């Protein structure tokens, strides 16, 4: 099994620095090249050549696993489509269960346990009906994940529990399964309209995976993504809160500078790779400030 990131690829007590590979390039070669430039040896998988991990042919998946092993790169998580912006709560749960079953086999081959999920956009249901369906579906998914040795990590993004800490906690308690934990993305508060450190203070004890991005709200109300530490997401404060709560998992870069699947943005080629590397370098610099300044209870320096 490929080894985890060495000590020089960790910071402030966190686990390995990693990234969602397709934010750097569509193909494996470009994804690995970006990691090499950063000196990182961990990756989060979402798509390869535009195809979701669960949809890769057996031959393509075998090639991918061989390339990762040859490069000494560890897979720290996979980003599924389960419950995401493209799958409303009224859709067929069998689609998500089928994807989870494929990912269980592929995670076993990759030596990975974390699978990113979301909590289903609404589709005309009342708030109560929406909540009930999300809780019921997630309980079924978590049970299936537990039996496969996986941990589902729910992201603060699309869906019923995506932008409210109270709902995320209700989801955890309602499902009541250790195979369900949280993924915290530092940048999602900007487009969804909340302050990330405030949400994280409530959720930090349950966070098992972290995505790093930063963003600003533009005058016309849209979101513009920036290098980590250069936007309004208060990434450094989030990192200090995580450190103060003893988080030791990976930090996975998802800069959204060249690739935003939900917006249909895909800028392939050298431009995407260069932006990904710049974002990784900015994260490394930001982590030095986190190490230098212990957190106060609110996450500030």
From TrEMBL:
GO terms for molecular function: isomerase activity. It comes from the Bacteria. Residues 32-256 form the Xylose isomerase-like TIM barrel domain. Keywords: Isomerase. This is Sugar phosphate isomerase/epimerase. It comes from Streptomyces guryensis.
